[in-house]
Amino acid sequence: MRTPISKVRGQGSAKNGTHHFWVQRVTAVALIPLCMWFLCALMFHMGNDRAEVLAWLSQPLVAILFILLIMSGLYHLKLGLQVVIEDYVNGEGCKLFSQLAVTLGCSVIAVASLFAVLKIAL
Amino acid sequence: MAQAKRPVSPHLQVYRWSVTMASSILHRASGVVLGVGTIALAWWLIAAATSDEAYQLVQACLGSVVGRLVMLGFVWSLVYHMMNGVRHLVWDMGYGFELKTAQFSGWLVFIASFLSTAAIAVTMLVMRGSL
Questions:
Q1: Which value does ipTM take for this structure?
Q2: I need a surface site. Which of A76, A79, B15, B118 has the fewest CB within 10 A?
């Protein structure tokens, strides 16, 4: 007989417990207002000339919102793609390679985007 | 280590299609599409930070007919994933699991995502004269 508490103690074989589940929800909640802002911003600034976009991105509030969007978005993406790979990619080698590619790829996209925003804003 | 040949997902072909199943698949698919979208966003930001030439190249690609259609696809994916994500968060809090409710919210999110995407497209058309 196993009680629910005995299953939860020790946090399972990965020793992470519900961390993945929880951070995915935290980033999801953060992304709701950020994505609403982003969609509105896209309507006004998509396709504008470079000078206008640079002036817009130079505003501290815009840069801060972009940084938050990039950080929570890419973290959320990494967590989501990780689960997709766990579910659909068969074969240990293939799985390991895809997980590495997702983790490193998301990091590269995040750092590149953050650097671009900071370079424009600062 | 030798492993038993266990059945693995996905089993898309063995089930009768339902709204809840379709919305689950669309949620994942739109999430993967948004992953590609982050590359486009990164490219746009880096180009804006680099030079006029780099920025004009992005604008030429994203501003082409194909580019605009792809952008519209990204917008729909974002709207759908966000709305269906709220549906998931409501489930996480323990509400809306009844079959009828889950089917209704599945359709609601699906239809609302298309209406919202259309509203965004129309707003851009009216406000700027083009998509």
A1: 0.87
A2: B15
